[in-house]
Amino acid sequence: MLPESVQNLIDELSKLPGVGPKTATRLAFYLLLKSDVDIASLGQSVLNLKKKLKICSGCFTIAEEEYCLLCSDDKRDKTIVAVVEEPLDVVALEKSGGHRGIYHVLGGAISPIDGIGPEDLRIAQLINRLKNREISEIILATNPTLEGEATAAYIKDQINKSEIKISITRIARGLPVGGDMEYADEITLRRSLEGRRDYT
Predict the structure, then answer these.
(1) Which of 106, 135, 147, 173 has fewest C-beta within 10 Å?
(2) pTM score, whole prediction
(3) What domains are there in the chain, each with its CATH number?
(4) How far lies 120's CA from each of 92, 104, 113, 114, in Å?
């Protein structure tokens, strides 16, 4: 029913996370209304996406230079490292404005069912980084999933085995703002209580 070029675009857009066939169709028809200049700019941006990007030599997030903007920023507290699973986690923490230190991106989480073991992540690089730098605290900011918890526990064990003297903390997890307690699961409620602090 649709021209092949439009259907091909819909099919490709449908492969994006969170984009179903209806959203892909709306996006395709939206793009049909845009000028040739806008379409060319979008296409060039997609083509250049991977050409200009590399992995940061410091924290292993995405960058356009050897070091990302955060690792290059002299105003960041280089003594505090937040360990996250993916580059998107860096973006989320930066949006929160709650972390002024630097990062270490693991490249995933331990997941035996998916065939991902500790050797597939950047855990060895993290331990070397801790040995070679003046770092006072490491924040284990992996996701609150079974895989994220297993990864955090493994990293903690590796740091303890290496006898590196450093403060190891874990991000607190609890109830979302606007959420109702009656809908929260037991683990979330327990962690909300465990992560409580003075109310001043």
Answers:
(1) 173
(2) 0.80
(3) 4-51 (1.10.8.420), 74-194 (3.40.1360.10)
(4) 23, 15, 13, 11
